[in-house]
Amino acid sequence: MRYNIVIIGGGPAGLGAAVEAKKNGIENVLIIERDRELGGILNQCIHNGFGLHEFKEELTGPEYAGKFIEMVKKENIDYMLNTMVLNINENKSIEAIGEDGLINIEADAIVLAMGCRERTRGAIDIPGYRPAGVYTAGAAQRLSNMEGYMVGKEVVIYGSGDIGLIMARRMTLEGAKVKAVVEINPHSSGLTRNIVQCLDDFNIPLKLSTSISYIHGKERVSGVTLSKLDENRNPIPDQDEFIECDTVLLSVGLIPENELSVGAGVNLDMRTSGPIVNNTMSTNLDGVFACGNVVHVHDLVDFVTKESRIAGRNAAKYCLSKLEKNDTVSTEAGEGIGYIVPQNIDTSNDEDVNLFMRVRNIYKNKKLVVKSNNEIILEKKRKHMIPSEMESINISKDLLKNITGNISVSVEEA
Ligand SMILES: Cc1cc2nc3c(=O)[nH]c(=O)nc-3n(C[C@H](O)[C@H](O)[C@H](O)COP(=O)(O)OP(=O)(O)OC[C@H]3O[C@@H](n4cnc5c(N)ncnc54)[C@H](O)[C@@H]3O)c2cc1C
User: What pLDDT is attached to residue 409?
Assistant: First the structure.
């Protein structure tokens, strides 16, 4: 099989990239998805809060995905379901396994859109036996929202990221008692709106600076021991607390799915665990692009869509031999910034650039300062910044044309 553009992953990133590639003149586009339907993680996110930027309305996850699936169908874009990509190489040969066995596909360009997966209990080493009743929050979300199973009745959630917060509300609405959400940091790692709407509105306690130090139970979870932590994250003696429960949901981080990318020789950024990309979402491999959660973990799907359009458009330009790649400057995370995407910028590209970044701490009344050659080129005042909410700064194409040195962003006094 041969396609101009093959997109790996049929979540919002893959769908957006496919539609954009088609609109930019590429007839021959294929999406490969390992699940039984298109839509990615959105299919299990039945709560609302999606699409405020993109569609100016508040949609559920399946509604948001549904709009893009419709566009894919309208544009007659090919897709394969129940098909998992096993290997890609730098020559853009793809090996996948589907319902009829192994498939080999040659592509002119590839868009990586595999999303991310959850960290599990093994990654955080909680002592105890291995009883039933320990789930990742996303697995529990899929079981309850898509497969129709209730995973437990008395629940403790570990980690206050968005999936954990949303599952606290979901389990409560389904009749479970959520006894606590436990977070090792002194602040939640989820969006503020989710803390209010998912915990405060249901009187679910959020225990900050606290860890689960033991999971009790042999056959089934019977409880957890919580330990209060000091500022160095060491347990404070004599402050342990036992909570009886039959279920522990883990919401302790997401990891971009990059085994395929690494196998092909794509360079990753250690800070994001995703491919290093430039402002066209090109990786270091010629004709290989990436977008969405596989690049860095997004909290808002609207930004995933924005990135996917850039990847799809530039993959199309690449196939039409209209894309030159000259990474002229790099971006550097300065004081207070954890990472910046894109990591490289081709200043000759005739489009505005959106820098996406996360701050390292909670900041009030500060500003984000963008510098090049030690000169301030842009400033953005921010009343409140937290690591869980992604920040973005737009650099216009006109401003970009005059930039010759690397671009740094830092948090400074307002
Ligand atoms: C619980 C939860 C709640 C959220 N709530 C909100 C919210 O309220 N508002 C909001 O805007 N955003 C929210 N988000 C974020 C948003 O849903 C994600 O950022 C977005 O879905 C990421 O899109 P993606 O396409 O990059 O990844 P995904 O949606 O994960 O899609 C990746 C796809 O790639 C497929 N895939 C992976 N590997 C392979 C392979 N080897 N072969 C074939 N297919 C493969 C996967 O099966 C999957 O379908 C939430 C996310 C979660 C998890």
Answer: 98
